[in-house]
């Protein structure tokens, strides 16, 4: 009717442009292009050249979205330059930036508001998106976080959306988060707007007010079954199922059942495309909340994903889903899955399948085959680094490629994660490997951890894998383990000579970013391995508690401190000095370090009495955590406070105030211990 009532070319073009934009915002670029070509393009000649150039740019955006080229984009840029028409008032934007840097936001807001109004008057979608992004950023500075989220959604800019979502989390205000979500939910009718709203929901899932969880679930249900038609709308499925993954733990039984049904029926599961892993991860999260009686349908789907509809891209995710279902379903479902994946008399060669066997209760028909496999794995592991003479070819042991360097003595070839898949398959069956063979395998791993020409990433992975063998670690290797791990845990690490040093790769002026891994990660893996070995056999390394662990916990490097605290939490036999250092680390300015310290405290003192001085330190650490902007830091404090018993009378009021604050925290994960 509006089109019939329009008489002037300008009005007709405006109506056609509106129809085209609605289709574009609903992620239907071909329909948007059809409307533009039918109702707008024929009228451009009757408009002023500047107006026509601005409006024609919208079609170029449609073509790019539909991956059909750029159209007249570059020509239109030249036309606008000739006509003196800019999409933005660059002088005003520069003035706004200068005022923002000076803290004069009372001058910035009017400028960006005028830019936003101007973009609507220009009827140029590109200009409008940029203006919405700038206005959203300014709203964050002013604390108008609900407005920031709304305008970020309209901008369609992923970075702006993430900034606005992070600002909502930092606000720690249920009222502000609730106001923003209500605004988004009310404006998310078109798919583009829904996509951006769902991205914010995925980031803020833990902060969604309880009374809005059902409304959010309704939006996710609306798009969970969406079938994309191309690259332009695949983000709907990707973001929706990522959000389902993030919020699944907060949904009620009916929402879980409805979303699970939508996931099971999602055609993407049968198509086997790259988006399937998003749906699988979402179903995995829902499985944890699924009623036992509803697990059978999920079992059938998951079995199909690893058999008839197997796809190597998401095979690991599919196996994870199947194991989660079997774990929740009990012996009956485990038996069903086991009989399907491990048919009687069949020889299992799939190393990933072998790893999940113990979870499903599978016992190998030929236990001796794992000893044979361990012999082969030991030989392969020793070939992670190969020194070969000129003209020789390296032995292929599998992995993710190689690094090589040549010198006068020949060539050094290093396999990236070479033969590591063999180790992962053997670890669950370590108990049935003959002791001599197991000793040979672990000795090979230690040798490659000690090998200076091996990649730091390889050595770290080997050390982490060795932790899986701790309960069967031969005493005959204790001295060798200490010999290898002691210097690494102390930070004495030699990087391979054939690659740039890790510090050089991090230099912003260095264009070559390749490195063999971070030495801090190797130090951390060695620390954790030593502490766990010490837990099994006290004083296996005499310097661990006299020097190494304490030096890590008190290191100037925050990364080393984090690893030291993780190692301490997983170890045992801590000295009084180490326990005090852990307590003091709860006051660390790095929230991740403080969080690790609080978790280590919880493990060590949750059910034990503490000395008065340690109570004072713990109380101050919990108070600091309760005021932290880091949600994980606050959640760790909440868990520790819940576990602490027999609070000293002089601290009851202080800790009571903190408890009250944490019980009403924005984040569900922080409130959860008290629910």
Report the β-strand fraction as a percent range.
under 5%
Give the CATH topology of the domain at 86-208.
Answer: Serine Threonine Protein Phosphatase 5, Tetratricopeptide repeat
Radius of gyration: 30 Å
Overall shape: globular
* Residue share in helix: 55-70%
**Biggest β-sheet description:** 3 strands, antiparallel
Give the end-to-end Cα distance, rounded to a whole number of Å: 56 Å
Average pLDDT score? 90
Reading off the top of the CATH hierarchy, the class of the domain at 86-208 is best stated as Mainly Alpha
- Structural classification: mainly alpha
Which descriptors would you attach to this protein?
mainly alpha; 35 helices; three-stranded antiparallel sheet; Serine Threonine Protein Phosphatase 5, Tetratricopeptide repeat
Protein architecture, described:
- This protein is mostly helical and 675 residues long.
- Among the domains are: 2-80; 86-208, Serine Threonine Protein Phosphatase 5, Tetratricopeptide repeat, CATH 1.25.40; 583-675, no CATH class.
- Helices cover 64% and strands 2% of the residues.
- The chain contains 35 helices and three strands.
- It has helices at 2-5, 9-25, 29-40, 49-65, 73-83, 90-101, 105-122, 125-142, 145-155, 158-171, 174-186, 191-203, 213-224, 234-247, 253-265, 268-271, 276-287, 295-306, 315-341, 351-356, 368-381, 420-426, 435-450, 456-466, 478-489, 502-506, 519-536, 544-553, 558-570, 576-585, 591-605, 612-626, 631-643, 652-663, 668-671; strands spanning 385-388, 402-407, 410-415.
- The chain has a three-stranded antiparallel beta sheet with strand order 1-3-2, with no helix packed on it.
- α9 runs parallel beside α11 (174-186).
- The longest helix has 27 residues, at 315-341.
- The radius of gyration is 30 Å and the shape is globular.
- The two termini are 56 Å apart.
């Amino acid at each position: 009717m509006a089109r019939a009532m329009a008489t002037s070319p300008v009005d007709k073009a405006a109506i056609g442009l509106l129809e085209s934009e609605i289709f574009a915002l609903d992620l239907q670029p071909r329909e948007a292009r059809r409307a533009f070509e039918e109702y707008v393009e024929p009228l451009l000649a009757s408009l002023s050249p500047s107006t026509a150039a601005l409006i024609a740019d919208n079609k170029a955006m449609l073509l790019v979205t539909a991956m059909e080229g750029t159209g007249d984009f570059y020509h239109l840029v030249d036309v606008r330059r000739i006509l003196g028409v800019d999409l933005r008032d660059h002088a005003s934007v520069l003035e706004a930036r200068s005022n923002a840097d000076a803290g004069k936001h009372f001058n910035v807001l009017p400028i960006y508001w005028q830019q936003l109004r101007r973009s609507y008057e220009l009827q140029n979608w590109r200009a409008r998106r940029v203006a919405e992004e700038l206005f959203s950023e300014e709203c964050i500075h002013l604390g108008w976080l609900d407005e920031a989220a709304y305008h970020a959604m309209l901008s369609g800019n992923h970075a702006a959306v993430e900034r606005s979502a992070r600002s909502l989390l930092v606000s720690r205000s249920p009222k502000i988060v609730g106001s923003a979500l209500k605004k988004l939910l009310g404006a998310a009718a078109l798919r583009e707007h829904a996509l951006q709203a769902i991205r914010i929901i995925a980031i803020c899932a833990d902060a969604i007010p309880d009374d809005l969880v059902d409304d959010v679930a309704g939006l996710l249900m609306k798009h969970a079954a969406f079938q994309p038609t191309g690259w332009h709308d695949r983000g709907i499925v990707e973001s929706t199922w990522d959000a389902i993954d993030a919020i699944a733990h907060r949904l009620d039984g009916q929402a879980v059942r409805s979303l699970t049904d939508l996931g099971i029926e999602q055609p993407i599961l049968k198509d086997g495309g790259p988006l399937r892993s998003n749906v699988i991860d979402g179903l995995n999260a829902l499985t944890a909340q699924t009623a036992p009686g509803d697990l059978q349908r999920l079992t059938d789907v998951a079995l199909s994903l690893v058999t008839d509809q197997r796809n190597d891209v998401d095979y690991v995710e599919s196996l994870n889903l199947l194991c989660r279902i079997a774990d929740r379903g009990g012996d009956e479902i485990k038996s069903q899955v086991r009989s399907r994946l491990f048919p009687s008399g069949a020889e299992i060669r799939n190393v990933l399948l072998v790893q999940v066997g113990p979870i499903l209760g599978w016992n190998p028909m030929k236990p001796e085959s794992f000893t044979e496999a361990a012999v082969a794995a030991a030989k392969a592991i020793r070939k992670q680094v190969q020194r070969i003479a000129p003209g020789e070819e390296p032995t292929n042991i599998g992995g993710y490629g190689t690094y090589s360097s040549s010198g006068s003595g020949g060539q050094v070839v290093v396999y990236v994660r070479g033969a590591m898949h063999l180790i992962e398959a053997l670890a669950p069956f370590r108990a049935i490997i003959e002791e001599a063979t197991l000793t040979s395998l672990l000795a090979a791993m230690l040798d490659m951890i000690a090998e200076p020409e091996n990649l730091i990433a390889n050595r770290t992975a080997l050390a982490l894998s060795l932790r899986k063998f701790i309960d069967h670690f031969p005493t005959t290797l204790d001295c060798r383990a200490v010999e290898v791990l002691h210097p690494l845990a102390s930070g004495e690490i030699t990087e391979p000579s054939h690659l740039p040093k890790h510090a050089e790769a991090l230099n912003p002026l260095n264009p070559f970013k390749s490195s063999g891994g971070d030495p801090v990660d190797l130090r951390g893996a060695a620390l954790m391995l030593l502490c766990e070995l010490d837990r099994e056999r006290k004083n296996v390394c005499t310097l661990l508690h006299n020097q190494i662990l304490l030096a890590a916990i008190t290191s100037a490097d925050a990364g080393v401190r984090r690893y030291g605290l993780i190692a301490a939490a997983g170890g045992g036999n801590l000295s009084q000095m180490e326990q005090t250092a852990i307590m003091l680390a709860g006051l660390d300015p790095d929230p991740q370090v403080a969080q690790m310290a609080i978790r280590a405290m919880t493990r060590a003192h949750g059910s034990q009495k503490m000395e008065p001085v340690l109570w004072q330190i713990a109380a101050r650490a919990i108070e600091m955590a309760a005021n932290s902007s880091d949600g994980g830091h606050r959640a760790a404090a909440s868990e520790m406070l819940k576990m602490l018993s027999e609070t000293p009378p002089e601290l009851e009021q202080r800790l009571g105030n903190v408890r009250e604050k944490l019980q009403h925290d924005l984040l569900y994960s922080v409130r959860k211990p008290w629910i």
